[in-house]
Amino acid sequence: MLSTITGSPAAPSGPVLEPRPPRSLDDDANRRASQRIGEALQLLARTLNPQRRVVRAGDTIYQSGEAFSHLYVLNSGICKLMSLSADGREQVVGLKFRGDWLGFSGIAKGRYVCDAVVMDVGEVWAIRYDALLAACGRHPELMGLVHEAMSGEILRDRDSMMSVCTLPADARVADFLRDWANNLACRGLRTDQISLCMTRAEIGNYLGMTLETVSRALSRLAKQALICFPEKGRRDIGIPDVGRLEAYVQRCLTPVGHTLQ
Amino acid sequence: MLSTITGSPAAPSGPVLEPRPPRSLDDDANRRASQRIGEALQLLARTLNPQRRVVRAGDTIYQSGEAFSHLYVLNSGICKLMSLSADGREQVVGLKFRGDWLGFSGIAKGRYVCDAVVMDVGEVWAIRYDALLAACGRHPELMGLVHEAMSGEILRDRDSMMSVCTLPADARVADFLRDWANNLACRGLRTDQISLCMTRAEIGNYLGMTLETVSRALSRLAKQALICFPEKGRRDIGIPDVGRLEAYVQRCLTPVGHTLQ
DNA sequence: CGATAGATTGAGTAGGGTCAAAGTTTGTGG
DNA sequence: CCACAAACTTTGACCCTACTCAATCTATCG
After folding, report:
1. CB nearest A161 (choices: B87, B93, B106)
2. A91 touches chain B (CB under 8 A)
3. At which of A117, A146, A175 does a domain end?
4. Residue B6 pLDDT class (50, 70, 90 cuts)
5. From residue A216, how far is each of A91, A165, A169, A210, A212 by CA, in Å?
6. Which of A123, B20, B137, B255 measures 20 to 30 Å from A170, CA to CA?
């Protein structure tokens, strides 16, 4: 029973056998996305026999400056990419989830140019880059996968850029939460209660604002009931309705009409 | 006479035959970079026989939403990437110069996700993506080239992100000019006088600030003699010393100590 | 030589940064 | 298991940077 039933007028009055909450198109898309990620991981496992390693919060997968040799794929867990420029600036420039690749930015320079730091326990697969190149020659679908992953990373970076450049602080935080929830949803995980495993300082650094502003933004979003905090602790965040968060972000744009010229 | 002469103490007193201004390590690096770009283009021309097209300011190379089929490489000219989100926000998300690839972000989605608009006359090479994949199988060095280009794009996007997130407006504009000059230098072009071929509005949009702020920042930089305007018109910008611009950007960081925590 | 797109500059304002003081968690060692 | 310390979070007050609105000036192109 996958197709949506377009409201038969004479619905049964008792809520007991109420059909499950509308399985939306999004749910379908998410399920497909999740499946694709699983298949991609299987393809990697099959063709490359990657070296698996269990990692826990705080572990470093690679560090800026090290000679580039491997790409990594997250089989599970969450990871942040920290870029530190020559002059000492430090910034979280990316967040990675199951199925995401790590280390692409090292290819061009022959060295890793950021630190990949684990934020939540998981398993990471190491893939020798030279072996990958060789395998790509034999398996065109593998090359497609790699290109798609790199292309996707470029896409996501641009979305971040857009968010940072065009959204006010509150909306940026809302968009961040929406994006995180979205990432979970695409991997078949529930999104009504997410645990960020990042400090306010890290979030702020990622979004280009101070930790105080993040804290205030979260408080304001909570006041509007767009998010809510569980009784104990404020690290976990409840998102009653991702759609409303999305709508909020939209609303922040309409007044300003942020087109060029 | 390419190697640098390490100051013989008894230098001739007359300035007439003064050895040319010190050819720095940077110059060397730039020459190598320029050569690499040339060689990459030759490799492409040799292995892929790309379709060449002369383009002029305002031309569109591809548009958001079109089915993805080709990648493009700029043989000359300058090009901007305009991303427009579903909700109508529009942003310049990238600038491309000779040797740069266009269209990577379309691979993941099967459609182009931004507009590529020419800003300065040049020649663009169109490369069918399927032909490229096939050729990559036959020519490993070609695959290396493509990966390097994608990796480089990821790198540059992150640098932009960093600049937007950690620099105040004036420094961001300075950094933008530095980057532009650097792009020219890497291609063997002179950098003391650059012509931006972008309006203040476009620059501001790219840097995440208003056109007024760009204008004011340029005026302030000019007041400090970090840049200068030629007598007629303010579209061209003179950069007497890129190093001083770079130093200025640095100075903006020291007071704040922008590390995490 | 007007018309129009673009650039500059000023005045006023507000969003977000800085600094500071509590309040909460979390973790560690007795 | 409790107590204390360290790390993290929240909230307030103040201020500054960059945005908005507006007027003026400059280039460019019919």
Report:
1. B93
2. yes
3. A146
4. very low
5. 21, 20, 9, 10, 6
6. B255
